[in-house]
Fold this protein.
Amino acid sequence: MEHSIKKTDRPPYGMLAVLMIGAFIAFLNNTLLNIALPSIMKDLDVDASTVQWLTTGYMLMNGILIPTTAFLIQKYSVRHLFLAAMSFFTIGTILAGAAHVFPLLLAGRMTQAVGSAIMMPLLMNVMLVSFPAEKRGTAMGVFGLILMGAPAIGPTLSGWLVEHYDWRMLFHVVTPVAIGVLLFGIFLLKDKKEKIDIRLDGVSVLLSSVGFGGLLYGFSSAGKKGWDSPEVYVTIIVGAISLVLFILRQFKQEKPMLNFRIFQYPMYALSATISMVVTMAMFSGMVLTPIYVQTIRGISPLDAGLMMLPGALIMALMSPITGKLFDKFGGRVLAIIGLTLTTVTSYYFSKLTLDTTYTHLIILYSVRMLGMSMVMMPVSTNGLNQLPARFYPHGTAMNNTLQQVSGAIGTALLVTIMSNRTETHAKELAADAMKHATGQLTSEAIAGMKQQIAMKAMLEGVNFAFFVTVFIAGLALVLAFFIKRAKQAEDTMAEKASEKKMVNKLAEN
């Protein structure tokens, strides 16, 4: 088995601790930014379609780089990959904290994403090879508790910092911690890696980057440029064609960069599909909610963060519980209950008004997070459990790639839907207001009317975008009924023969 970590009776807890702290910092920084998006829009004078690039650009870089992590995990040691990942993340954090224009901030975020793209698949792979299948749910639950602590404290910490300081402080606070984790990694990680004769296929990297990058860029640009813009539909078409060529090339490679043969295992294929659909709903909600709470309702960043705190705490505390429930009952029951809660709460989020109470928002968001907590980790773990051990790097890389791509496309698509619906409804309200206007309106009355129209139009846009997520979550709910408890598949005789043939060929060379 080509891993830097061999499965032993005692998992490498020291290594796991360092990796989890690094992953926690990366995840915390991502959740910190959501509450700050309205403040960044105002400070840097950018609109919603532009500022969402801080989220989708981050995912874009992840989507481009994560497919290479299966190769990287097999080629390099955990120590080398972790130090490289934390170095990129730290540099990106410093760059973003110094940004005074949007392009520099975006460059910092995308540099951070280079580190994040390596970190998560690396940690997941170490977890998979360190614990047997019957204990994996509990282990993943503890892993989830630590990582879900980031969304628990992220929005509240972000709200407090933005309200009392400046959004740049979000990066300044993380910088010394990231440097400290990097130093810990240098002194504590000591694993060695056997030399493996494996090379990265440059054509596959190019096709993967153009494929995933084209799709993400096209969907992300649609909100600002419109679906009829050549820049939008040409990049989507080029991306789709490149992705098809990339997949076909992987089937022809003896050692593919990203092995699509893992989709022959039905529970893995199903779990990947459900995770993609749920991620679209989850990430879009994380962007739409702060826009509604702060831009439309005028709730302060701190209060907006506190509103999200109970839901994030529930998600964190439920993680080890769902891990134990998964070991006992499997993923199907958990996924059905969780997706039912997600679908129902998404519907109620599509009925927001200009005076929806703060308590109502807290309860609604908390129940939605409860539903999400019962889906993501159990469904992913169930799918990975079916893969033979040699496919773990490809399974974790594929999962993370698909989640990043679907999250970015989902966010971009729903922000586009929100923006288009807002613009259309604003024109309708303006036409209606002019029709019913009587007498000569003062400049103050016109300004007040424009502001009211803008708020009502944006509310309609947010509600309509949430209404679309009802169908997205509903699709995942239907798929959840087909989940079965997965058992690890054995390598077939054909696969073993093929592997032996490759070994002989390498020996001859």
